């Protein structure tokens, strides 16, 4: 366990981002690059190791336009799922992690691309700081749901009425301003990299059955995808005040 006493949240994020790359990436791999403040440190590390020659013949698939720009600046070779439908390892953060390793993701608005990349990954390494760990999904972080712009108010109502959602829901809020944060930072409706809207579901209590909520959301016409990542993480690397642990 690496010591992490007295480190800032950013320094903790850097520790887990670097560890994920150091432990799991080998030359010749196809790698999924996540999105968000923690994943950005992993992307930096990939760039460093390619530049030093420690890693060779790696090709990466970014999960957002933001990550793509960062990777291009670092000289990381990129492709898309069109070229490679099988990924050796993906590294990404999460907004919440429950004891069963179910995740809430999408605070940064990239949930659809993240899920498309991570679902076809041999290994999905989730990197978080201790503040993201929770006893159950729901109250700690709003659940993002990506929906079509067409009749979005209707879709929001349908989502809010789902039986696995409704009893625990406080409110459903359309994301405004930048799609990359769930804080209202503008007056226009936030648009994802895919041209869709996001509704953030704020819960007053823990979702009793997160897999059921995931299934009901996915089966709702008008919902493109949602931020519940159920049973997808291979490993969770956590940085806390007592150190970094898996």
TrEMBL record:
GO biological process, one term: pentose-phosphate shunt, non-oxidative branch
EC identifiers of the protein: 5.3.1.6
Xref: SUPFAM superfamilies: D-ribose-5-phosphate isomerase (RpiA), lid domain, NagB/RpiA/CoA transferase-like
Pathway membership: Carbohydrate degradation; pentose phosphate pathway; D-ribose 5-phosphate from D-ribulose 5-phosphate (non-oxidative stage): step 1/1
Highest taxon listed in the record's lineage: Eukaryota
Reactions that this protein is recorded to catalyse: aldehydo-D-ribose 5-phosphate = D-ribulose 5-phosphate
Entries under InterPro entries matching the protein: NagB/RpiA_transferase-like, Ribose-5P_isomerase, Ribose5P_isomerase_typA_subgr, Ribose5P_isomerase_type_A
Recorded coiled-coil stretches: none
Alphabetized UniProt keyword annotations: Isomerase
An example molecular function term from Gene Ontology annotations: ribose-5-phosphate isomerase activity
Family as reported in the entry's similarity comment: Belongs to the ribose 5-phosphate isomerase family.
HAMAP family linked: Rib_5P_isom_A
Protein name as catalogued: ribose-5-phosphate isomerase
Source organism of the structure: Trachelomonas ellipsoidalis
